[in-house]
Write a structure and sequence with these properties.
alpha/beta, 8-stranded mixed β-sheet, about 30% helix, elongated, disordered C terminus
């Protein structure tokens, strides 16, 4: 239960000190609950428009559903887009990003990949935030508060007749109208190839996602350089060379989630 305790501690931090902490959780709604047209309890037509929605719940801030159609594939590029676009939204709304970004995701391959970790380090290296803690939960322990949002949406639409994407969007907003935070649905028609951009710059540490070597939490923290290396005009000293991007990467125990 340690991972649950830490998760709720981070949510509390985002409530009490929103200028310093941003806590968010991302997950994907069941695709068989999003087929269009949706005819309630009647037999579904053979020809349907598939939708997929990856939602990001920013605690005490907003709920954003990123909706993809058949013309946009899923995978790491879509997942990275959702993370970066959410940070962009927070920056636009608040003028700056908090110092610490807590981000919880499920354990699927779209999140468990080097490209996602590479962008986390890149964000910190660019000083957009000072620290990122990205967490995957153990198999069988992935249900959390965002699943309750999906349950409320499903309760709203399961017996309804919904024919168009616009009607489905309105149903989402009506279902979640009472949660007390802005509800946003963004239709995504294209995403950049984030993997092609960053993969050539990554080390091969794919074993970190395999069986007993799996890491469930990664921490990226800006540490900068010593005074002698800060101007970057000469080779880095031994201490700074350990973190060439000025970012310290911690990989906690893979058996449980540590803060």
């Amino acid at each position: 239960m340690g991972e649950r305790r830490c998760y709720h501690e981070r949510i509390l931090e985002s409530h009490t000190s929103p200028e310093k902490f941003l806590s968010a959780v991302a997950d994907t709604m069941a695709q068989n609950h999003m087929m269009l047209p949706w005819l309630g309890n009647l037999a579904q037509p053979k020809a349907c428009l598939p939708q997929k929605m990856t939602a990001v719940l920013c605690h005490n801030r907003c709920f954003v559903g990123y909706r993809f159609f058949h013309n946009v594939g899923g995978g790491a590029n879509a997942s990275i887009y959702c993370m970066l676009r959410t940070l962009e939204r927070i920056k636009e709304a608040e003028g700056k990003l908090p110092e610490v970004f807590y981000y919880q995701v499920d354990g699927g391959s779209e999140n468990s990949n080097l490209a996602t970790l590479g962008y986390c380090e890149f964000i910190v290296a660019q000083r957009l935030v000072d620290k990122i803690v990205i967490t995957r939960l153990l198999v069988g322990h992935t249900h959390c508060d965002i699943d309750a949002f999906f349950g409320v949406i499903w309760k709203k639409i399961r017996d309804a007749t919904i024919l168009t994407p616009h009607q489905y969007e309105e149903a989402i907003k009506e279902a979640l109208a009472s949660v007390g935070i802005p509800i946003i649905v963004e239709d995504v028609f294209v995403v950049p190839d984030f993997q092609a951009y960053i993969n050539p710059h990554l080390l091969d540490i794919t074993q970190a996602f395999k069986q007993q070597y799996t890491k469930l939490q990664w921490i990226f923290e800006y540490v900068g350089y010593c005074e002698a290396c800060s101007d970057r005009t000469s080779p880095l000293c031994k201490a700074c060379a350990e973190f060439p991007n000025g970012v310290k990467v911690n990989k906690p125990c893979h058996r449980h989630i540590c803060k």
